[in-house]
Amino acid sequence: GAGVSQTPSNKVTEKGKYVELRCDPISGHTALYWYRQSLGQGPEFLIYFQGTGAADDSGLPNDRFFAVRPEGSVSTLKIQRTERGDSAVYLCASSPSPYRGNEQFFGPGTRLTVL
Amino acid sequence: GNSVTQMEGPVTLSEEAFLTINCTYTATGYPSLFWYVQYPGEGLQLLLKATKADDKGSNKGFEATYRKETTSFHLEKGSVQVSDSAVYFCALSPSNAGNMLTFGGGTRLMVKP
After folding, report:
1. Interchain contact, B106 vs A95, CB within 8 Å
2. Nearest chain A Cα distance for residue B14, angstroms
3. What is chain B's pLDDT, residue by residue, as a tens digit (113 residues)?
4. Which residue of B has its CA nearest to A109?
5. Residue A86, SS3?
6. A95 at interface of B, judged by CB pairs closer than 8 A
7. Are A103 and A4 in contact (CB under 8 A)?
8. What's the confidence (pLDDT) of residue A87?
9. How far apart, in whole angstroms, are the C-alpha atoms of residue B96 and residue B9?
10. A71 in B contact zone (CB under 8 Å)
11. Average of per-residue pLDDT values in chain A
């Protein structure tokens, strides 16, 4: 079956621009997570959705970052007024449910480069 | 808050050598513990997990035991292969709702023939 997909795979933008990153989770998975991975580091949690609602957005670094999941499936991470420090690989993961210990299935990531 | 510390790499071993990658954690309550692996050119995938104290997770010859007394979850394999070359991430998810992962910094393993 299809895994988690993310588009685009690479995004290059200029400082100050707006970007959208898309995640298609595994069908039927109710929990969806966004992480950010800087070079040489482990992924850092950004936001988690249970269904359509953002259940925990405590990892979003500031109000330039926003994410939606309007129909409980596809999610979009939106970054306004991008900064060079936003350059990283953005990972999406989905899980059948948010219960403790459940495996998260990761997508290949979107590499964002802000010039 | 929650945190995970794992040994820095790279770790370079010869084929058939014994592998240990240390991982310790800080968390309240009883977190679940995971090892994820990232092979070259591929995405993160779950290697093994343990959800309560003294549980042992195992997969593909790798093992890790949840040690609450030492807050550790060290990864071991008795005989590594070249195909095990990858980056390994230790992670935890909290005992309360949400299952969000906190990752360590990753350890790159290189196995030489």
Report:
1. no
2. 23
3. 899 999 888 999 999 999 999 999 999 888 999 999 999 888 999 999 999 999 999 999 999 999 999 999 999 999 999 999 999 999 999 877 678 999 999 999 999 99
4. B43
5. helix
6. yes
7. no
8. 97
9. 31
10. no
11. 94
CB contact under 8 A, A43 and B45: no
Q: Is B84 helix (H, G, I), strand (E, B) or coil?
A: helix
Give me B83's structure tokens. 């195909």
Report whether the peptide linkage leading into residue B10 is cis, meaning its omega lies within 30 degrees of zero: yes
Interchain CB distance below 8 Å, B91 and A42 = yes
| Spatial CB neighbours of A104, under 8 Å, sequence gap ≥ 6 | A31, A33, A93, A94, A95, B46, B99, B101
Q: How far apart are CA A107 and CA B108, in angstroms?
A: 20
Contacts of A9 (CB under 8 A, 6+ apart): A108, A109, A110, A111
Residue B19, both tokens: 């592998």
Residue A1: pLDDT band with limits 50, 70, 90 = low
Q: Which amino acid is at B78?
A: G
Smallest Cβ–Cβ distance between A103 and the set B4, B46, B102 belongs to: B46
